[in-house]
Amino acid sequence: MVCPTGIGTASAHSGKPAALSSLPRPAGQYGLPFASPPGPDTWLLGQFYGNTAFAYEQRRTLYGNGQGMHFGLDFSAPCGTPVVAITDGVVSEVDGPHGSAPHNLVINHPDGLSSLYGHLLSKPAVKVGQPVRRGEVVARSGDSQGTCVSEPHLHLEIRDHSHQLLFNPVGYLRADWASLGLVNPDMAGPGFQQDLRQPGAWQTPEDQPSVRLHGPLLNNFAQPWPPLAPRTPVKK
Ligand SMILES: [Zn+2]
Fold this sequence. Notes:
By secondary structure, this protein is mainly beta. The protein has helices at residues 53-57, 177-182, 185-188, and strands spanning 44-47, 73-76, 82-84, 89-94, 105-108, 113-118, 131-132, 137-140, 142-143, 152-160, 165-167, 194-195, 211-212, 224-225. A hairpin with a 4-residue loop joins strand 10 (152-160) and strand 11 (165-167). The N and C termini lie close together (7 Å). It binds zinc ion. Zinc ion (ZN) binds at residues 3, 5, 47, 70, 72, 74, 155. Zinc ion binds at residues 3, 5, 47, 70, 72, 74, 155.
């Protein structure tokens, strides 16, 4: 799934990154960004966070700002699907400078993390400074290409408040990731990219590296597998 989230993040950071020791560890403490259960008529997992084969292909382009990783989770969903806050917080940005066009939303949470909801259908109706509760509808999902028939999906990120550090949402969101992964196009294909020098690294949805925006590529592998050609990206 094409997810041009990395575009537009170049000038988007501010302040010092948070000390990792000050941030909460992933413990399934957040909810999913949809009120409805997964299914073919509601939403399904589209692409995991991290070292996906597609991110490897796009490591110098779409995801170049994010060390070559897919630095969010993609949920395939029809345009207009209600998106809910994953936990309590305060709206910090509406259509801010963090990419994930055509519209995005950032909520700051009191634990030191932020959630970003991207590729939204329209400008979210919430206002900066507005408190929101977990499960409250805050936006509608859209399409990264703006068509609603190309790649309709929600891109969800977990960041620190400085917007420089990005974390794997899988551990923070309580969900049955193993079942969701069964219908994931990455899992049906070659899955996560391997470096044959370290073939076991970053091969599960849970075991993926954190990202520092504009840091060096993490997946410039010496012996990548699968090779790039002739695989083409999974598209919907
Ligand atoms: Zn994405």
